[in-house]
Write a structure and sequence with these properties.
Length: 567
């Protein structure tokens, strides 16, 4: 095609374009309805008529965004926060559990350090070990049991509310996390020689090696052997009743409880014999006896009613107390509340009633009128007071005139046993102090003694430092600064007990609490106090393992109930 022909074709196309799209008219966009939809039938919809003689501006596309509601936003934020919290908490728990299970390396014993021998593994001894800095001492622990027992929850074990393994913690869990190695010997102390500073002990387990009794020396002795159950010389108390002081007591009590129930269900029993077998008697109106009675009531109502409906209605629970009322350490309002709750739960309370004799099938009591009455029972639990162990009585005799109190060892304000020349420290139930023999007192005393030994080690270190500075003729300012620290470390404060309150479970998901508040006491009882009781004990439990196991036990009981099988 020639150039002339090409130019002609271009002019013709330009003319056609000008006729089709005049310059005075704006090109119109395709019409889109105001919607988020992109469907074809809406996109291809017929646009509105346009006046050809009038210029029309393009119509903007307006998109309406639907606003998310406040409630939906809150749920989204809550879900994210919950997810982060669960992951963080789970990771933290896993790390803490991993750390507990993997103790690090320890420093070996140093012959140049002083040796501390600890007798016992209860509240007093364990609290002392937790607060003691073992880098400054060689520590040896001797105890007939190789674990620590959380006694406040012991009444929950016989009925199955809490598993026995959930409230114990091995001693080596504590000792293996110390800086310096701590030796642990499972044995029973036989004698203490305060003059020769020695302790004789032996293995009392069913399986023993060839070694017999062993004797070790000490520089300091921590005497925290506790006490044993006081029976007041009542005939038959040891032979015909169950105690509730150690873990094996609770396990034995559980077995006997189910034994009474199964025996009552055995064919051929007379009505009087069934009533006797199903009568459970608790002697002692302190916190232990009251809590056990409450746990027994819950066991009957929540579990026996379902699995032994023909027997549960005939179960009776009786609490015997020699004093005018139960829980004498609580306020009068809480005592009245407890007695009212027991009456509603059909738990008989016999106050001002003295036990005279315990026969195999009946307990002989003297009622408030002075009459002697035989009360048949299938199970009797003795939750009385404390008395000295034989080794403590022997030590009191060896210390002579310095020990005149028959309730226990006499100590000074720093827990030093009088007549021991500062070598024996004693606290807990084996001592005679003005404080009640409770776990709370023993724990605070043990913590105090542990810190006291840390301060003694700091004092010895500063004394050596001052002597070295003087020997090297150091600057007077350095000597003066070290001397001031030494003077401060030489001031040993006496023990001061801080009462944190008293708690007791009374059954039916109710508890009582007598707590110090400002200059007085705050008394509370009921379901909310029960929740506080549980949270307080949960926080007091020894380790994360114990807290987790006890929480799982409580959840299991609430869902599946207590186990009614016999061991």
């Amino acid at each position: 095609m020639s150039l002339r022909a090409c130019l002609g074709t271009a002019r013709s196309l330009q003319a056609i374009t000008r006729r089709t799209f005049p310059s005075s008219r704006t090109i119109q966009p395709r019409y889109f309805p105001r919607t988020l939809s992109t469907s074809n039938h809406l996109r291809d919809a017929t646009p509105p008529p346009i006046n050809p003689g009038k210029s029309v501006e393009p119509v903007p596309v307006i998109v309406k965004v639907k606003r998310v509601g406040k409630w939906r936003t809150f749920l989204q934020i809550l879900g994210r926060v919950t997810l982060v919290t669960i992951l963080t908490t789970g990771g933290l728990i896993y790390y803490m559990a991993w750390k507990d299970r993997h103790p690090g390396d320890q420093i070996p014993h140093d012959p140049s350090k002083k040796t501390i021998v600890v007798l016992g593994s209860g509240w007093a001894a364990i609290s002392m070990l937790k607060s003691l800095d073992t880098q400054e001492y060689n520590v040896i622990v001797i105890s007939p049991r190789n674990y620590f027992l959380f006694t406040p929850l012991l009444p929950s074990v016989p009925v199955g509310t809490v598993d026995p393994r959930s409230i114990i913690q091995p001693i080596r869990y504590i000792t293996r996390h110390k800086a310096r190695r701590v030796l642990v010997y499972e044995g029973e102390a036989l004698a203490v020689d305060p003059e020769g500073k020695t302790v004789t002990f032996q293995d009392t387990s069913p399986i023993r090696g060839e070694g017999g009794p062993s004797t070790i020396s000490y520089d300091y002795l921590i005497y925290a052997v506790g006490a044993e159950t006081q029976t007041f010389g009542i005939p038959g108390a040891k032979e015909n009743s169950c105690f509730l002081k150690e873990l094996w007591d609770a396990e034995q009590l559980r077995s006997k409880t189910m034994d009474c129930i199964e025996s009552a269900a055995f064919p051929g029993q007379s009505d009087s014999e069934v009533d006797r077998l199903l009568h459970m008697v608790v002697v002692g109106g302190g916190p232990t006896g009251v809590e056990l009675a409450g746990e027994l009531h819950d066991f009957v109502v929540d579990d026996l009613m379902r699995w032994y409906p023909e027997l549960a209605q005939r179960v009776r629970i009786t609490l015997i107390e020699a004093l005018p009322n139960v829980l004498p350490m609580f306020s009068k309002q809480l005592i009245a509340y407890t007695e009212k709750t027991f009456k509603q739960n059909q738990i008989d309370i016999l106050t001002r009633t003295m036990v005279k004799e315990i026969k195999p099938k009946a307990v002989v009591v003297k009622d408030p009128s002075g009459a002697t009455v035989d009360i048949p029972f299938g199970l009797l639990v003795w939750a009385g007071g404390n008395t000295l162990r034989p080794i403590t009585k022997d030590l009191v005799a060896k210390l002579g005139a310095n020990q005149t109190n028959k309730r226990g060892l006499t100590v000074d304000d720093h827990m030093v046993v009088l007549g021991s020349n500062g070598a024996i420290y004693s606290f807990g139930d084996c001592t005679a102090t003005s404080y009640a023999p409770t776990a709370q007192v023993a724990a605070q005393q043990g913590t105090y003694v542990g810190r006291l030994f840390n301060q003694m080690a700091e004092k010895a270190r500063l004394e050596a430092l001052v002597e070295e500075l003087k020997r090297e003729k150091a600057d007077l300012s350095e000597i003066d600064a070290a001397s001031k620290k030494l003077l401060k470390a030489s001031k040993f404060k006496p023990f001061h007990y801080s009462h944190q309150g008293s708690l007791a479970y009374i059954g039916s998901d109710k508890a009582v609490a007598d707590l110090p508040f400002l200059n007085g006491n705050f008394s509370s009882g009921g379901v909310f106090t029960f929740l506080f009781w549980r949270s307080a004990y949960m926080s007091t439990l020894f380790s994360l393992r114990n807290r987790s196991l006890v929480a799982i036990d409580w959840v299991k009981v609430s869902i599946f109930g207590r186990d009614v099988s016999r061991d």
